[in-house]
Design goal:
4 copies of one chain form a homotetramer. Chain A contains 18 helices and 10 strands. Chain A is of the alpha+beta class. The two termini of chain A are 47 Å apart. Chains A, B, C, D: This is Potassium channel.
Chain lengths: 505, 505, 505, 505
């Protein structure tokens, strides 16, 4: 027996508490169509971690933070530092150690095979895949620079280059943002912006460091971009050096190019040429992304404006009476407001499968429809099915819902608001009745298949459930007994109605 | 009695005068679906103002004007003025007083709860919400700067900062534009442009003021962007200082960057770096918006061009006779012109509910269809329903509306223009008749369900009402009496027609 | 008597020669819906010219050319010339005279009322409208500058300003481009580009002239953008002056801003600020337009790529046999090629009204279908109706058109290419027949309503006409006699076929 | 006998090996509609090469490589070299010789007539077309520069110009990219990027060469962009000259414009003006393309976010129980994941013709459905047709597939996963059964046309085949015998089921 509208609080509580987490399906993998031919396991073996494990996800997010640190520190060491200094050495080595832990961990994390969409949890296959792909690069990027300096002869130069190898870790950030973009808990707009800002800041910082290194290592310091302006730049504070490098970098990147600082020797020119080419691509990419976001944000408003404009033009061109014009505009404005409040009701519901839609409709409307006079004594089964077929609609005040004499295609149940019954006689409108929450209008036309008796017009903002005649008849045909009950209900009430109505004229 | 087409002028007048304002529904709030479970009040309590009150809206618009004043004056005071001067002090304090009034007022304005979409009018809740959110910032931004100078020891510096606090008021402007964009009385394009221009001008002005302040407060005036070019810049006129600051600001913002003025000391560089980064975002945003507007404006024309191009290519590739090609192009061009004149007739009408569509159709076409010979003696009810089913279509001159021998799917009523009846005999076309306003064509085919007797071709631009056979039959089935009348009408007239037609060959 | 497929060459010739021009409907105005209520005349009175008159259109195009001349000369005179010189004076006055003629002419040109869409041809109304709107500006912009110099005291200065008034004529160009964009005889892409290039060149030229004038009229020539670099700039050749101005103008406009030339005095700075702001809008507009054009051009290719990609992924993921994969890709590729050759066949045809579509189908396919054995002896009427229901489809080689045992929903007529009949027996395919142009496949399944007997597979690229079973039966029901003939036809041929087929196994 | 699901490995192998290449249809031409009126040959005559010949295609791709060489070398020779040097002369002449071979070859390559879409293979027509169009330009661009120097008097200058004529070959690259964009074997994104990078690099290189030539040939070397900074620039190394030119070129192109190098004499200014104008167009084009790619890439994610957002808002606004909310979100997320894994299953399949869709459905599901108890003893024909009507759907865990009491519109076959049968009794849910792979749910409701007996809910991620009641009944009507078998099957099993079910309460 149907329980629609009767979920008690406790039950809801239960669902939310112990079932809530089970509905997260991001961790599972779709089997291919035709299951008998392919076999997928969604769980992983012992001592192997699923790549969708929440703890592993947190670990990955933590590593992304460290990557941000690396992204700032590595180019900085490359450009400005000759040898590592106290604090930086310590933090660098701690970060390296953490990434080394991740390397070890990776041998125990199952992976998703891209072609078969299978989760591979065989330790051998995991190891083979990792060793043949990114293992070496990952390992090299965790080697402490002190160790390198001991091994390599030209230890000063190499310090910077080893540092740069760590940028290999940046690939984690791009994967991180790709996942964030699809996560409904984070705003798409801000995720996208954060990504663009991260990229831009990194590029500027990186270029600043390279620019400075080029100048610092050039044989003739006065023939460099910075030395030609400040001859004693090497003795300045690190902050002053960095801010000047950053200033030139962003001046070039933003294509401002004041010209107070500019490339002087061929090395700088070569790098600058490549940097400007890259910036051309980057700024295009930023503009493209911003356009994407702006167009997206503006679509809804534009559609509304277009529709309203078309309706107004149509009305004016055909000199429709003001009352009709107002009805048109009011209806379209209401429709848009419903949307702009974040509902898209019908759209969202329509994309769901039938069972969920029925559940929603019954949860919302079953108790109301159950009390309608028309369905007194009708079986729960039919009622359940009828409610699933109903569509909720809003009508602004003073809008006609049904016109007198029109063909009976729908009946309406009032959820909220008030509507009037109006009869046209000798071109004068007579209000002959009113309907409120729980009443039904247009049912006599639909059941007796004759032109509607009254014009039905809203008195204030009303919510109505529309039930289509064809859908209604289809359901009645399969429940003949209930059909008779409904007809009896309507005849008892309606006869009196019509009787009084005819008398009143 | 249907009154379609008979709204007298007086009635229309009445509607427009005393009902016009009631149709504005922007002030109301949608109840959630299933009204019996939630309860919404749309009216607010005594001594509490609705946020949708027209007077309150006007007050808000007035405040926006004052915000524009603040947006210009505050950065200017921050950058260029050491102490407030006569007139400026007075206007500043008047503006502050007005905003103080608004703070008091806010305690009496109901607000819309974002999660439940309820209007909250409890004074306690309003006060709690305001005090816990923006009250303090609003209050601080109205403190007169004279008062601050007395309190704080370092009174000169603080003058500018207190001034800057007032920019907090800018949030009003963004809300104002958001509302304007959705208002059909203002052009979307120009609203959007006004917003972009406002933002751009504010940013340039703001940056100019900050740039100047940075230079004016630097310990060594010759090591500033302005002092390194004009050493005695502090003695220049305020206008000259301002125009130079503005000039550098826009030079940087537009990425022109002549380089005659450029950052010199680290402070300026730091600010300039941030300014250029911000500009990168701002110009992307401007370009994104412009692209949005351009694409929107061009969509219609492009669609027209694509359709015409496809039709021409098809015709040429399949070597269709010139007459057919001309018909195709003429029809598509006409269709587009109908659109470009701002009608989108069918589109606009289709998005309205059935009752409004019926009203429109009856207002426009009832009186014409009432006089058609086919419907002589037919009940008003049926006529009303038939008119609701008709679709108005334009046909360019010399286009075939009906082809001889084709299956009878539609009949057409002439609203304007002239069409010819044409009979093909031995591959020669014979014109055997003509139809004008109020005539009907194709009805014999439809009623007798036999291939059309004539080709019907327009002689000039014609407007026709199309009535689909299926829709027509469905309505007739429910009105058997009227159906017989229609058949009699058609037999009386048609028999003669066909008789004369057969004789003529 | 249907004449489809029998238009003789002479007839086609006749259409194209004497009717061609009548199909141009751009000159006519749509009446509003419901013609009996409003009255529109499409012709204009005596001695009044229609605004859509071809001769008047040519005159307008000629004036646009002169506007281009004005757009170049006016700013040039404003910026560089102190007094008019020989040749320029003469051409200027000729152009002025022609525009004066246009002013007189305008009093005789009917206009289109924007609100009622009526052509107003009353001379009084035309004159009233013109005098109250643009007459004065038009008139002032045609006054010869010599005349102005005599009247005004400060005649040197005024020469330039009078010249600038003529830019009022530019409004013609914008109207001209708006019309060109909708004209199918001109490429949309190039029209749009021409418009953008025109605007950009004009802005650069204009700014160059104003920049030079600012420098030339400044009290201290060495404190100007040009004088601070070339002190004796006033004695240089006109060409040198112009190219330097243009160089600075474009340097600023394109935001390159080398800085070799830059604003020096406050006047220049003020203008430069405004110029840069305007350029920000203009470049955004150019980028927006380019994006619009690029996105438009790329849409089709992108859709194709997406579809192909989706199909490939689906096939690989579900491990479909190679043969099926190939069929899928081949079909989609063919579909796209049909589009890319500029046909969009079905799309273009579907947007046309039924009568035109029937004409096209009959012109193309009637003669072929007439010769199909199935329709031997069938009436022309039915054949005409059947052909209208058929859809032409291309199939790549080796694609299955019909599968053995599938439900019979369609039959196919071969227009070109070859198809094989294949029977599956014990998982082996036997080719049991072949069909060529004029044959029909799948008819036995459709007519006898039983699963298809053969798999039908194309041997090479084939064109087939698809006829849906439901559409076919609907037409047959209304022509019972013809239905019997068709059944007889099929039984005579098919029985033998099936007989031989059964024997062969 | 249907062979679905029984393609043995050998057969698949055979298809892929000897048929694979035949499905490539890019080489064929579509006949126009109505084949009897036009005649197309797809093969070409003897000694004539088809333009779609794979060998010829490879030859064209090879030539494109040589064009890249020419595109770099020609401007370089034009700008920097006075006379050809050793190695360059040799390679130049080899390349010229290869292009000469291509000229000869072109006389033997058939071409596609753009208006009739016919392949023209008459040698005379090929020759006529080539000679009257591009032959002369092609020929001139292959003349060796040594030869030119002998003929022309002023041989030094001419060397560069002859070199530039070879850029005529660039038109090949644009055709090459147009073809690559449509080729599914290459990524659209990277093809497009490669094209933009090629264009940008060529423009920068070209401008660099022209800039240098302008400076090198100016009468006063100190009044040039390069000479005014480095007086002895002509004695510098070629590399230094080139990198400086390139540096200025890109500085201008990217609108950075440092100003350390800038146009000095009118010649340079004139070229620079044109270069900047061109760059305005080029950067707009690059941004437009990038926007196109970004918007394309982001569409899918945005749609997903919009849908999820709408559903969440709807749920919160109407206070749906948490269980329903979770079902909604889980369903939409699953749907999106299916898409993001590159399937678009339904979309891709729906755009294919019926025969291919049936083949796919049968290949995937026939063997599973064959084993369902419902279809025991049913003919293969009906099974084949039923499988074609089924749609595969994924359901996330704990989602309702069928609701108790709802109208029976579909039945479902389990491909994978597990579902529970649940009965609501006194608002408590009782699990009364479970179904697994190969089971069918909802069949009793559909066959007996009564409300569903159970709620069916997934226990884990499940794949179900949905069969619509109407489609099912239509097929059964045409196979009455099989219908009886199915009913017997259902009654045997279901009766027991219902019996036990009723007993259990």
């Amino acid at each position: 027996m149907f329980t629609g509208g009767k979920y008690d609080e406790k039950e809801i509580e239960r669902f939310s508490v112990d079932d809530g987490s089970h509905f997260s399906i991001t961790g599972e993998i779709l089997p291919s169509l035709g299951a008998t031919r392919s076999f997928h396991r969604n769980s992983v073996g012992r001592f192997v971690i699923s790549p969708f494990d929440p703890h592993y996800r947190t670990w990955e997010a933590f590593l992304v933070l460290l990557v941000y640190y690396t992204a700032w520190v590595s180019p900085f060491e490359f450009g400005f530092l000759v040898r590592p200094s106290g604090l930086l050495t310590i933090t660098d080595n701690i970060v390296n150690a953490i990434f080394f832990v991740d390397i070890v961990l990776t041998f125990f994390v199952a992976y998703l095979d891209k072609t078969s969409y299978l989760i591979i949890d065989s330790k051998k296959e995991i190891a083979t895949r990792y060793v043949t792909t990114w293992f070496l690069l990952d390992l090299i990027s965790t080697i402490p620079s002190e160790f390198v300096r001991v091994i390599l002869p030209n230890n000063l130069q190499s310090y910077g280059y080893v540092s740069m190898l760590r940028l290999w870790r940046l690939r984690r950030v791009s994967r991180f943002f790709a996942r964030l973009e699809k996560d409904k808990n984070y705003s798409y707009f801000w995720t996208r912006c954060a990504k663009l800002v991260s990229v831009t800041l990194f590029v500027i910082h990186m270029a600043a460091c390279i620019f400075y290194r080029l100048a610092a290592h050039y044989f003739n310091p006065t023939e460099t971009w910075i030395g030609s302006v400040w001859e004693d730049f090497k003795t300045e504070s690190l902050y002053s050096q960095y801010i000047k490098s950053l200033y030139w970098s962003i001046t070039t990147m933003a294509t401002v190019g004041y010209g107070d600082l500019h490339a002087v020797n061929p090395n700088e020119m070569t790098f600058d040429v490549m940097y400007m080419l890259f910036n051309l691509a980057l700024t295009s990419y930023i503009i493209g992304n911003m356009t994407n976001l702006v167009v997206h944000a503006a679509t809804r408003t534009r559609q509304f404006r277009d529709t309203i404009h078309a309706a107004s033009s149509f009305a004016q061109r055909n000199r429709l009476p003001v009352r009709l014009q107002d009805q048109m505009i009011a209806h379209l404005t209401l429709k848009y407001r419903t949307d702009s409040e974040g509902l898209h009701q019908q759209e969202a519901i329509d994309s769901l499968p039938k069972a969920i839609r029925s559940s929603i409709a019954n949860y919302l409307f079953y108790s109301l429809v159950d009390r309608v006079y028309l369905f007194r004594g009708v079986s729960n089964d039919l009622l359940f099915q009828l409610v699933s077929e109903m569509k909720a609609e809003y009508f602004p005040p003073k809008e006609d819902v049904i016109l007198q004499n029109e063909a009976p295609t729908d009946m309406y149940f009032l959820v909220s608001g008030v509507v009037e019954h109006i009869v046209h006689k000798n071109a004068i409108e007579h209000v002959v009745g009113e309907a409120r929450t729980g009443d039904v209008v247009g049912e006599i036309g639909v059941l007796c298949y004759r032109p509607q008796l009254f014009t039905v017009r809203t008195k204030r903002l009303s919510q109505l459930l529309r039930l289509n005649r064809t859908a209604f008849l289809n359901l009645i045909q399969a429940n003949v007994g209930d059909g008779t009950i409904i007809m009896n209900n309507v005849l008892q009430v309606a006869r009196l109605d019509i009787f009084f109505f005819l008398v009143s004229f």
